[in-house]
Amino acid sequence: MDPTYRLIVSCPDRVGIVAAVSGFIADHGGWIIEASQHADPVSKWFFMRYEILAESLPFDLDTLHAKFTPIARDMDMRWRVTDATVRRPLVLMASRQPHCLADLLHRWHSGEMHIDVRGVISNHEDLAEYVGWYGLPYYYIPIPNNDKAAAFRAIEEVLTKLHPEVIVLARFMQILPTSICQQYASSMINIHHSFLPSFVGARPYQQASGGASS
Contacts by 47-50 with C-beta closer than 8 Å and gap 24+? Predict the structure, then answer.
């Protein structure tokens, strides 16, 4: 795969965002090889993700960042541009159910997902052998009902040690405390079948139907 730069943008929606960004890239000879964008009509925010062929630009990543900054400032953008060839450090969190974790680990191991998996945190021992097959560290931290605070402090210590940019909750059947959510705000992805935030927990369908079996 040819090296690319990944530009991610969110900003208040307005006319001319796509033209400004794509025009900037085209003016410097840049080649956009993948583009995704959409507007949220409720929040009136715009979201964009571009993959740009690195060799098509006449400058490096730092210069790209410097040259794009005036456009970002003018449109009040929250943005970042990164080297897509660099694997982002990631931590997985799971409980007993293996299917989400298994899918992610397979995609990582096969090279489909370009990530650096630092380890797996779990409140049960069930998945330790499976994770061990991939040669990854497995951090078993039980979360007893009578002392959840201590368990979550231990989880925070592991996360601090592993220093992930992304945390994926792959059927992690616990509600994380505010301290962890705030520390890793915008860095967590929750893979869960619950109808959050209305129906929290392991049986959301039964809750939504008033207790009837689904």
Answer: 47/9, 47/10, 48/7, 48/8, 48/9, 48/10, 48/17, 48/18, 48/21, 49/6, 49/7, 49/8, 49/9, 50/6, 50/7, 50/21, 50/22, 50/25
Task: Give the global pTM.
Answer: 0.74
Two structure tokens written together for 133: 């097959």
Q: Which two tokens stand for residue 109?
A: 């191991």
As beta bridge partners, residue 193 has: none
pLDDT in tens, 142-179: 999 999 999 999 999 999 999 999 999 999 999 999 99
Backbone angles phi, psi at 62, to 5 degrees: -65, -40
Q: What's the CATH architecture for 88-208? A: 3-Layer(aba) Sandwich (3.40)
In the numeric block, the tokens 């994380």 are attached to 176
H or E stretch covering 111: none
Spans of all domains in the chain: 4-83, 88-208
Nearest to 121 by CA among 99, 134, 139: 139
